[in-house]
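Ticket #4471: complex job returned nothing on first submit. Input attached below:
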Amino acid sequence: MKLTLEFGGGLELLCESVKTHNVDVDQTGEKKLTMKDLLSWVRTNLIKERPEMFMKGDSVRPGVLVLVNDCDWELSGQLDTTLEDKDVVVFISTLHGG
Amino acid sequence: MKLTLEFGGGLELLCESVKTHNVDVDQTGEKKLTMKDLLSWVRTNLIKERPEMFMKGDSVRPGVLVLVNDCDWELSGQLDTTLEDKDVVVFISTLHGG
Amino acid sequence: DSNSGHGLSSDIIYRYSRHLLLPNFGVKGQSNLLKSSILVIGAGGLGSPALLYLAACGIGRLGIVDHDVVELNNLHRQIIHAEAYIGQSKVKSAAAACRAINSTIQIEEYKEAFRTSNALEIMSKYDIVVDATDNAPSRYMINDCCVVLGKPLISGAAVGLDGQLTIYNHNGGPCYRCLFPAPPPSTACQRCSDSGVLGVGKLLPNTNISSSFYFVYGVPGVIGCLQALEALKVASDVGEPLSGRMLLFDALSAKIRIVKLRGRSLHCEACGENAEFTPQVFQNFDYEKFTQTPLSTAPMKLKL
Amino acid sequence: DSNSGHGLSSDIIYRYSRHLLLPNFGVKGQSNLLKSSILVIGAGGLGSPALLYLAACGIGRLGIVDHDVVELNNLHRQIIHAEAYIGQSKVKSAAAACRAINSTIQIEEYKEAFRTSNALEIMSKYDIVVDATDNAPSRYMINDCCVVLGKPLISGAAVGLDGQLTIYNHNGGPCYRCLFPAPPPSTACQRCSDSGVLGVGKLLPNTNISSSFYFVYGVPGVIGCLQALEALKVASDVGEPLSGRMLLFDALSAKIRIVKLRGRSLHCEACGENAEFTPQVFQNFDYEKFTQTPLSTAPMKLKL
Ligand SMILES: [Zn+2]
Ligand SMILES: [Zn+2]
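Support reply: We reran it on our side without changes. The output follows.
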C-alpha cells in the first residue's frame, strides 16, 4: 500500500532530516493496515536514531500530533485507524519556542 | 478529461468569486486538448462577466500569468500546451498593491 | 471631537477608516475592538509583531507580561525594542513602542514573570490571551489559567523552520491539555535560545542556510502577524477563528497547511467533564516539575 | 571596541550572535550583510515590516524612498510610523524607527517620488532593490531601472486576499517585463487604496469578513517579512533566493504555493538580446502613459 509520510516540528531529524517519505507498506493477509501497524513499520524502517523521541509503548510519545489526511487521528480512532492507499500521514512535534 | 482550474489575484471575481473549479472538459475526436481549446472552454463555461478582463484575442489578457501544474505556461508551449487528465491550471492576475 | 450617533469620534473614524469601509465590520466591528482587551504574554520574537499590529488596529486595552530585560542580542529580530531600552524591561520598551503608534488605547505593563501566584489576577482582567512565550511549562500554565478563567487562548509557536498556530479553549474547541495531556520528554522541551526541538547540535548541520534564516526570524515574524489576526477575529466577533484547527507553517517547503483537531476531550484534566481544575489547584500546580523544564534559563553565551 | 582578526567589534558580535551561530553563515555571512546596501521603495504596508527586519538584521546601508506624508489613517497597519510623525514625511518617520532599533547602520532618506528623473542616480548607489510600492507604473519603472543598472529586484505585492513575491533580474532569471511585456488594462491597475484588483464594489460584498481582515493588514505583514528574508539571502550570498520562481500567498485558503517561472526572454524589451533600454531611453519613457495609470492619486475619503 502506497502512503505518504511526513515528519515535522523536529521529528524529521530522527529520519535523517528527510521530511517527506513516499513509502510502500506491505499488508499481511486480508487484514487492513492500521495506524498501530504503521507505527511499528515506521519505527523499524524509518527511525534511524533515538526511537524514544518518536514512540512510547506502542503509541507515539507525548507531544506528538498525528494527522491522517489532515485530520487529528483522535477523530478516526487513533491506533485503530485503518489506512487506505494514497493516505497522507503526518507526525508533528508540538513546538514551545517563540 | 478532468481538470482543476484555479483563479487568483482577483480573476475569481469573473467566475462568481469561486477560486477552484473541478471541471470535466470534453475532447472532440483524437486530438489532444490544448491550452487554446481550454481558454475558449473557460470563456464559454466559467467566465460570467467582463470577458475582456480575462482574454484578449485568443490568449489571456496582459497581466495574467498562466500556470500548468505549477509551471509558467511559457515553459510548456503557451497556447500549444497539451493537457493531460488531472492537470491543474492556474490563472492569476499580477498585483500592484502594497 | 464630535460624536454623531455611532459613538466614535471623528479622529477615531479617520484613523480606522480602512476598517470601517469593510462590509459586515464597519462601526460595529471597530467598536467591538475598541471595547475589547487582550493580554500578550511574552514580548520577544512572536510578541513583537503581534503587539505592534494589535496596537495599530485599535484593541481598546492591551496588557503585556514579560520579566526579561532588553539585551543587545535581542534586537536582530525582536523588532519592537529600540536600543534606548537596552537594560530596561521588555515590557516598558514594548509598551512605549505601542503607545507611540497608538496613544488612544490603554496599555498595561506587567514587568514580572507569569507565574501561578500572579496569573489568575492578571489574566482575569482581559478577554483574550495571546501566548507568545518560549517554553513548555509556560504553555501548560497559560492554558490551564485560560481554562480556569474561561478565556480564549491564541497560541503561536516557532522553532527552527516550523511554526504552529491555533486557538485553544474557544467555542467548544479543545484546550492545550486535550491535545497534549502528558508533557513531552524534557529533552524535547528546549527553549528557543537552544536552537531547535532536538538540540542545536543536531538541527544546524543538517539545515541549509536559506532555512537557517527563517530560523533566525522568518517564522516568528509570520506567526506573530497571524496571531494578531486571529486575536482580532475573536475580539471583533466576526470571521471564523482558527479554533479546533491548527495552522502548520513549514518554512523550508514554504507550505502552510490547516488541519482539523479533535474536539474538547471529556477526560481532559483541565477542561474535561470531571476535571477539578479549580483556581486553588492551579495555584498549587508545579509546572516546572510537571514538564521537568525550568520556566526560565540563563541565556546562551557565544565565544568567537 | 576591540577587533580580533575577524573584523567585527565585540558589540557587533554580541548584537548578531544568533546569526553568527549559524553554520555556513557565521562571521563571513554577517560581514556580507554589513557591507551590503539595500534600497526600499515605498514605506507603507509592505515597507513597514520589511524595513524593520532589514534594519534589525544589520544591512550596512539602507535607503528609503517615499514622497508621502504620514497620515492618521495609515497607522492602523503601517506599523513603522509613530503618531509623532503625522504630517511629516514617511521617509523621515521610517528612518527614525530604523535608527532607533539599530544605530550602527547607515540610513539614507529620499523624501521624493521615485521618478525617471531621479531613479538612476538614487538606485545606482545600492546593491539590491526592494519594490514595496502600490501601483503599476512604479512597478514597470523600478523594473526597468533595475535592468538598466543590473540590480536584483525583490518584488512584493499584496491586494485583497492575495500576495505575490519574487526576485526579478537576478542570476539569469526573468525581469518583470519578461513576464508582463504589455501592461494590463488600466481598470486592472487600481491602487491598493481602491480596494482590490477589480474595484471595491465587486470585491467586498463577495468577501467574508475573516478574509477582509487579511485585506486590511495580514497579507502585507506576511509578504513584507518575506521580502526582507529574500533580500537577506541575496545580500549575504547564501541560500537559494526566489529567482525564476514566484511565491503566491492565498490568505483565504491559507495556502502558499511556489511556482516555476519562465527564464529571461530573448525578446524582452528591457532585458532581451536586442533590447536597447539605455539610461537615455529609460529617462524618456512615460510610465503613466504606458500603463494609463497615474503614479499617485488622491486618497479616498470616507463619510459616515
Ligand atoms: Zn482540555
Ligand atoms: Zn526582461
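Chain D is about 35% helix and 15% strand. Closing as resolved unless it happens again.
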